[in-house]
């Protein structure tokens, strides 16, 4: 249907095509044969060489029972008809080939399935996998497919029909069912198969609620395409319902068993549903938009499980299709479907309303013409739009639909604010809206005012006044803005749309602002029930100020729309065949429309390819800026505004700098660090109102987005580049980079376990400022920040990274402060500890000794810094095998901290823990156990349960238990320590790996060989990843695995696997660490157990004294 004046009827090319499929067991083959004939003839009718699938033609496919199975195959799995017939035949043969039970009830009277539900499941899974999907894939997996698909199932508890969809349904609760679950739920016929559980709900065959789902399809389509009006009929081009053959007319029998069967037949009989539907759609039936195909004779005696009668089904269906009446109806159906050009978008209801409004207006104008009323005919509405329609425009249906619904709608605001990042496409969207408004409302005046600057706005007002034929005013005496306002506010002005583009400067709209014209422009806005004003702005604050809550945010395009825009903009479409480079380009440009058009312009003008542009974009920072600063022509943008994406935000930057200097400082700072995952604690603005305000300003321009409950901000990638360009052009980039190092140094979170979440996020930004600032001349801020980041790496077990940064920090501080300064000594002590963790024990010991000598020279050792270095030196001596020296130093450290800080201080507990390790290495297991138990008891009381020191103490006590043969107690502690370590430190932390190693050893000693081998293998993989293949701990683990899997001697195993140096290192380490122990059955046993130890007595006394002091204070 067409109307010469109003244009073609949209329903002819884009009207809804709906497909409804009945249930019927094996008789579903009849449905497929009917569809096969229709799709074959449709492909021939189109004559374009393409074999069409139902998913190519229909917008929505709904089915129930085995019709639901077919719907999933055709819609969700996007099968062709021939492929579906083959899969369906094999599925029916497999499922109904053998009965599981001949009697449909068990001894207790409960209904049970006569066929194997597991066989049905396996057959469905086979079909899904053969189609290229996985049975566990969700029906709605978030992918936009060629058509929407749903199936009906019946809730067992309520007998209510439930729809399982392959698409999101607004305002509907949709179960997250997998493809397999949905197929089972719709086809689980009671008496044939068991019910199906999805989540916590049970479902049975959808045929109980809707064996003919035509009314379900009707309601679902209304939910999608006409939610408000619920009037589906004007939107439907073709509604095809296919049955599985008519049923017998069943009399009601007095026999109870036959009566129950009759009730089931009455419940699922589809003919009554079809009669009700056809009565409602009788007009559409006459217009040949509704079709029902259902074999009327020959299938009544075919039961739903009689798959062996498929030959009969095919023959009867063939005869039905070749009946003269049906051939004519099929021809009508095909001619209808052949006109379908594209899928129907969700705003089709609005499109049809626009068309009907155009038809009505054309009819009115025609009547006016017939009575020869030249006054009304010749008064064309005002059209003052400065741009031609954009031929490259990509329809963003959802956004345009929102705008069109708010135009001239009762109860809607007369002002609409559209906001979004510069270059996101706001102007192009309202430009398209202007042209569509002209088409939809031919009597509507459409006016465009650019708020780029005061002069441009003044000239636009004069042009609007001319177009409105307002010639009775003196521009020198009257303000044209007031004249236009009064004119549009009068009822006789009729319907109008006023677009005010680029309303970014709030001062232009407020009274007394520096950029306003005497009084704010807001005072000149017209008011009329027949008029609508649309503002476009980059600022959320301006949008809310001008339009209150009636605002719409314009996001960046999705990948599909972005690709469409690139396709429309490129001259050489063959370049898009490089799909990988195309995807990378769109990702780099963040799907921003202006950046995409600029990239296409560069490719067109320079005759290059997409991959080359991506390489340029991925080059050095300045190269990317230069590329994004290339000028290009764009007919849809103002001549006074620079087009390149790198300069498009300069006006906004300057506005922020002028009005909100703190927000501008934050913007400049963020341009000097990474653009992603920025902790707000790093920002150079005090916490509280000022920080909140600064973040709000930048968010209102869409330059940043907040995440994770406001603790993180993220800067737009292209804005990040453009801001750096702005700073560079103002000769302030290097200044801000130097300032950023100071800011990060001042605001970096303290590196402890409690704040691990914060400092982990801050590390990439600290590394960025360290990398971007010169290393010479050295500064105290640089040395301090480097040391902090290195400490964080050490806490995270990244010892290689920590070692490198500690070395830089030590060198930097020595240049700045000299070799004996406390900062230099702290950094050298940290570097020595890093050497120790990496296994470089001699270097570590030498550096610690030098640090201790320096402390001795400048102030003695009896101070926290000296004792910290001494404690770490004791640990290094322990690891190197010099246990007497380790014990001497460890004793001194423990006594110092007990006297100065008490027994519950963290420093004291660390010193006691180190002493425990020394006793353990000496083979004094009894003393080590006592110390471990005492210290762990205090740690559990005074420290956080997940403190790393507590975790280390737990595993230390477990080590002692294992060496003493108490394997079950040891395993419990290892398991506790490993669980806490994984949660706090992560699975790849060296401490966590060490606990995993010990748990494997515990399992091995208890005879669980397979479990032990699996744990040790995982441990080896992690050690290689974290410590490296050559680390002595990694070597030891490889030795263990080989010893557990072969029967060779240790010496021969090591000789075949490792070099002589590595073998010697392993054996020497074992002898040095355990000189006073002997090995019995894999367990260490001390040759001599001292009866008493003076240090243990001193520790016990200190703990007791602290306990008494606390009680006295509490009393």
TrEMBL record:
The active site is at residues 65, 205. Keywords: Hydrolase, Lipid degradation, Lipid metabolism. GO terms for molecular function: ADP binding; hydrolase activity. InterPro entries: Acyl_Trfase/lysoPLipase, NB-ARC, NLR-like, P-loop_NTPase, PNPLA_dom, TPR-like_helical_dom_sf, TPR_rpt. It comes from the Eukaryota. A motif (GXSXG) lies at residues 63-67. Coiled coil: none annotated. A motif (DGA/G) lies at residues 205-207. The keyword Lipid metabolism applies. CDD domains: Pat17_PNPLA8_PNPLA9_like3. A motif (GXGXXG) lies at residues 23-28. Residues 19-218 form the PNPLA domain. One of its GO terms (biological process) is glycerolipid metabolic process. PANTHER family: AAA+ ATPASE DOMAIN-CONTAINING PROTEIN-RELATED, ATP/GTP-BINDING PROTEIN-RELATED. This is PNPLA domain-containing protein.
């Amino acid at each position: 249907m067409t109307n010469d004046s109003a244009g073609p009827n949209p329903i002819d090319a884009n009207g809804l095509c709906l497909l409804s499929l009945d249930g019927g067991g094996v008789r579903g083959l009849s449905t497929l044969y009917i569809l096969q004939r229709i799709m074959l003839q449709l492909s021939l009718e189109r004559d374009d060489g393409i074999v069409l699938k139902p998913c190519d033609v229909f917008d929505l496919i709904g089915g129930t029972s085995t019709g639901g199975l077919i719907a999933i195959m055709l819609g969700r799995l996007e099968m062709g008809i021939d492929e579906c017939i083959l899969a369906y035949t094999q599925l029916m043969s497999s499922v109904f080939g053998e009965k599981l039970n001949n009697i449909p009830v068990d001894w207790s009277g409960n209904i049970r399935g006569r066929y194997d539900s597991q066989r049905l499941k396996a057959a469905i899974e086979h079909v899904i996998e053969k189609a290229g999907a996985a049975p566990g894939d969700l029906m709605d997996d978030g992918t936009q497919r060629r058509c929407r698909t749903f199936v009906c199932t019946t809730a067992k508890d309520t007998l209510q029909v439930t729809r399982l969809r392959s698409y999101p349904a607004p305002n509907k609760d949709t179960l997250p069912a997998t493809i397999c679950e949905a197929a089972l739920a719709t086809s689980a016929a009671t008496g044939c198969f068991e019910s199906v559980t999805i989540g916590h709900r049970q479902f049975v065959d959808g045929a109980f609620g809707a064996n003919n789902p035509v009314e379900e399809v009707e309601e679902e389509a209304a939910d999608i395409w006409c939610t408000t009006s619920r009037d589906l009929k004007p939107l439907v081009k073709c509604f095809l319902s296919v049955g599985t053959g008519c049923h017998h007319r069943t009399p009601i029998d007095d026999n109870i068993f036959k009566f129950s069967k009759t009730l089931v037949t009455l419940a699922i009989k589809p003919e009554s549903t079809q009669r009700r539907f056809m009565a409602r759609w009788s007009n559409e039936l006459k217009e040949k938009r509704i079709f029902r195909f259902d074999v009327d004779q020959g299938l009544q005696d075919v039961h739903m499980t009689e798959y062996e009668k498929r030959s009969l089904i095919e023959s009867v269906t063939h005869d039905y299709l070749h009946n003269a009446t049906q051939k004519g109806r099929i021809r009508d159906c095909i001619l209808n479907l052949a006109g379908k050009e594209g899928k129907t978008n969700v705003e089709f209801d609005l499109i049809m309303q626009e068309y009907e409004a155009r038809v009505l207006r054309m009819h009115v104008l025609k009547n006016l013409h017939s009575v020869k009323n030249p006054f009304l005919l010749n008064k064309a509405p005002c059209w003052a739009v400065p741009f031609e329609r954009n031929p490259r425009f990509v329809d963003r249906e959802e956004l345009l639909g929102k705008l069109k619904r708010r135009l001239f709608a009762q109860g809607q605001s007369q002002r609409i604010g559209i906001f979004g990042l510069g270059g996101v496409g706001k102007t192009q969207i309202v430009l398209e809206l202007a042209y569509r408004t002209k088409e939809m409302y031919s009597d509507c005046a459409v006016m465009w005012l650019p708020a780029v600057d005061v002069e441009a706005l003044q000239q636009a007002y004069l042009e609007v006044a001319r177009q409105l034929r307002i010639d009775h005013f003196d521009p020198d005496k009257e303000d044209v803005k007031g004249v236009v306002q009064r004119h549009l506010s009068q009822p006789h002005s009729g319907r109008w749309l006023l677009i005010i583009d680029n309303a970014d400067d709030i001062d232009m709209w407020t009274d007394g602002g520096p950029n306003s014209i005497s009084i704010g422009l807001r005072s000149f806005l017209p008011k009329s029930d027949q008029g609508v004003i649309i503002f476009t702005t980059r600022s959320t604050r301006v949008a809310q100020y001008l339009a209150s809550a009636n605002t719409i945010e314009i996001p960046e395009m999705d990948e599909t729309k972005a690709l469409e825009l690139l396709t429309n903009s490129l001259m050489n479409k063959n370049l898009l065949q490089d799909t990988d480079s195309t995807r990378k380009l769109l990702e780099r440009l963040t799907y921003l429309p202006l950046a995409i058009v600029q990239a296409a312009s560069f490719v067109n003008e320079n005759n290059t390819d997409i991959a080359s542009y991506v390489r340029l974009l991925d080059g050095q920072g300045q190269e990317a800026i230069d590329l994004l600063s290339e000028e290009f022509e764009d007919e849809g943008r103002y001549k006074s505004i620079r087009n390149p994406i790198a300069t498009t935000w300069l006006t906004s930057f300057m506005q922020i700098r002028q009005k909100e200097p703190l927000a501008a400082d934050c913007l400049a700072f963020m341009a000097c660090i990474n653009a992603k995952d920025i902790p707000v604690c790093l920002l150079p603005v005090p916490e509280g109102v000022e920080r909140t305000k600064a973040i709000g300003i930048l968010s209102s321009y869409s330059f940043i987005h907040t995440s994770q409950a406001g603790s993180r901000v993220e800067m737009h990638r292209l804005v990040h580049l453009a801001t750096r360009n702005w700073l560079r052009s103002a000769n302030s980039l290097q200044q801000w980079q130097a300032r950023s190092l100071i800011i990060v140094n001042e605001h970096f979170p303290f590196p402890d376990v409690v704040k691990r979440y914060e400092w982990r996020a801050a590390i990439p930004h600290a590394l960025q400022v360290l990398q971007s600032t010169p290393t010479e001349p050295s500064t105290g801020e640089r040395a301090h920040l480097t040391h902090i980041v290195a400490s964080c790496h050490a806490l995270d077990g990244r010892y290689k990274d920590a070692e490198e940064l500690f070395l830089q920090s030590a060198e930097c501080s020595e240049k700045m402060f000299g070799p004996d300064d406390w900062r230099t000594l702290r950094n050298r002590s940290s570097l020595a500890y890093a050497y120790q963790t990496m296994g470089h024990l001699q270097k570590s010991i030498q550096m610690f000794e030098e640090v201790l000598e320096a402390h001795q020279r400048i102030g003695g050792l009896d101070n926290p810094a000296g004792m910290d270095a001494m404690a770490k030196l004791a640990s290094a001596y322990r690891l190197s095998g010099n246990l007497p020296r380790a014990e001497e130093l460890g004793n001194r450290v423990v006594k110092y901290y007990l006297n100065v800080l008490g027994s519950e201080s963290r420093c004291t507990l660390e010193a006691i823990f180190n002493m425990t390790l020394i006793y353990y290495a000496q083979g004094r297991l009894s003393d080590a156990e006592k110390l471990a138990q005492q210290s762990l008891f205090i740690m559990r009381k005074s420290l956080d349960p997940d403190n790393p020191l507590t975790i280390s103490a737990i595993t230390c006590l477990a080590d002692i238990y294992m060496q003493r043969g108490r394997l079950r107690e040891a395993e419990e502690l290892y398991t506790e320590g490993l669980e806490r370590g994984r949660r706090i430190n992560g699975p790849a932390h060296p401490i966590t790996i060490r606990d995993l190693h010990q748990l494997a050893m515990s399992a091995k000693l208890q005879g669980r060989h397979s479990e032990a081998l699996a744990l040790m293998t995982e441990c080896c993989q992690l050690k290689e990843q974290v410590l490296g293949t050559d680390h002595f701990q990694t070597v030891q683990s490889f030795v263990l695995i080989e010893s557990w899997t072969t029967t060779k001697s240790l010496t021969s195993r090591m000789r075949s696997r490792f070099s002589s140096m590595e073998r010697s290192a392993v054996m020497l380490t074992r002898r040095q660490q355990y000189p006073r122990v002997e090995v019995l059955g894999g367990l260490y046993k001390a040759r001599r157990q001292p009866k008493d130890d003076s240090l243990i007595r001193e520790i016990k006394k200190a703990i007791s004294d602290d306990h008494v002091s606390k009680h006295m204070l509490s009393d």
